[in-house]
Amino acid sequence: MAADASAPTLATRFKRPSLISTFGLLFVALLLFWLAVNAVKAPSEFMTIFLIGITTGCVYALVALGYTLVYGILELINFAHGDVFMLGGMFAITMGTHFFGLKHGMGIVTVPIVIATLLLTLLACGLLNATIEFVAYRPLRGAPRLAPLITAIGVSFIIENVGLAWKGPNYITAPSVFPQSQIFSFYGIAYEWDKLIVVCITVPVLLTLLYLVQKTRQGKAMRATAQDKEAAAIMGINVNRTISFTFLIAGALAGAAGLLYSLYVTTVRFDQGFQLGLIAFTAAVFGGIGNLPGAVLGAILIGCIQAFNEGLSWHAPGSDWTEAIVFTILILILVFRPEGLLGERTPEGG
Fold first, then answer.
1. Closest to 326 measured CA to CA, from 307, 345, 339
2. What's the 3-state SS for 40-62?
3. 11, burial (CB in 10 Å: exposed 0-12, middle 13-18, buried 19+)
4. Fold annotation for 46-336
5. CA-closest candidate to residue 222, choices 98, 69, 343
6. Containing H/E element for 192?
7. CA 52/CA 319 separation, integer angstroms
């Protein structure tokens, strides 16, 4: 009887790859071949574009981590998260230029102004996100999953219209305060200060988040709540406060991304949160939704894919196809590996 029971398991384990899996491997092989040809053809241009992709991926990582934190603890896709990022960018530009008088050419005075603006943006977006959870999501915690999902989409449109009413339909522009001079140029590979500053701000934020989640008392409460809310409550953890704290941290990450994006790209518009939020969500799914290192890895890969598509000249589709390529990747990941690159496959309860 035992041998009969194990037979299907062995057959499943050693079954032949399906046609769809073979197609996926072929697609990845063709993509790697295309990148290799570009790297051989113009190595300096390839590396410069690769560094741009890492910089873009760092901004995506901050937003993707917010999606991952919320999903990990509530299994909720907070579609309003990208719009919190958008408001963070608008708030950072408004606070920096109108309140602190931030402008191009201020020199070393720029540093404390950017730090102060960053802290205020973190606080504002964190409180906004926690308020959204308290008002829109907490009353629906026991409802079917479709209800909070629809609510999240509704909140996204509300925030988007708040941005439209606040700043209008046109782009708002931030002063170009990050120095754009080259740090180094090695065999034609150029890297500028404005890109390094983005990475230097992003990396400490990501490391602080990992320390918070893995080493602190509040982080342990977050992980316990994510595993089993009822058991966490029995052990004395305030579940509501823990979830609100998670939304606070996620909103702060969106605010940090908004400030970096506004000062690096220097333009923000009311509808950019929806677009970039979906790309960051794709990055979170790509790396493994609910997995913090996976979200960072997925964001870096998406940033590099975007940079290669928009920067490489050898048969690249161009910037008009960036979103189509990103969402094609999302579909392929959901088909071939729905748990993501670093996620773990878990059985569905039922």
1. 307
2. HHCHHHHHHHHHHHHHHHHHHHH
3. exposed
4. ABC transporter involved in vitamin B12 uptake, BtuC (1.10.3470)
5. 69
6. strand 189-192
7. 14
The DSSP code for 97 is I
Instruction: Give the H or E element holding residue 25.
Output: helix 19-41
Residue type, 245: F
Q: What is the pTM of this model?
A: 0.86
Instruction: Please tell me the distance from the alpha carbon of residue 63 to that of residue 145, in angstroms, as a whole number.
Output: 23
- Mean pLDDT score, 332-348: 73
Q: 277: buried, middle or exposed (CB in 10 Å: 19+, 13-18, 0-12)?
A: buried
Identify the pLDDT of residue 93: 94
Instruction: Provide the pLDDT confidence category of residue 252 given band limits of 50, 70 and 90.
Output: very high
The span from the CA of 279 to the CA of 329, in Å, is 10
Domain boundaries, the chain: 46-336
**329 in helix, strand or coil?**
helix
CA angle 163, 329, 310 (to 5 degrees): 70
Burial of 92 (0-12, 13-18, 19+ CB in 10 A): buried
Q: According to DSSP H, which parts of 95-216 are helical?
A: 110-132, 146-167, 193-215
268 forms beta bridges with 172
The H-or-E segment that residue 341 falls in is none
The rounded mean pLDDT for the chain is: 85
| Whether the Cβ atoms of residue 65 and residue 81 lie closer than 8 Å to each other | no
For the chain, what's the residue count? Answer: 350
Instruction: Return the structure tokens found at 182.
Output: 């080259």
- What's the sign of the alpha-carbon dihedral 141, 146, 151, 157? positive
Contact present, 140 and 148 (Cβ < 8 Å): yes
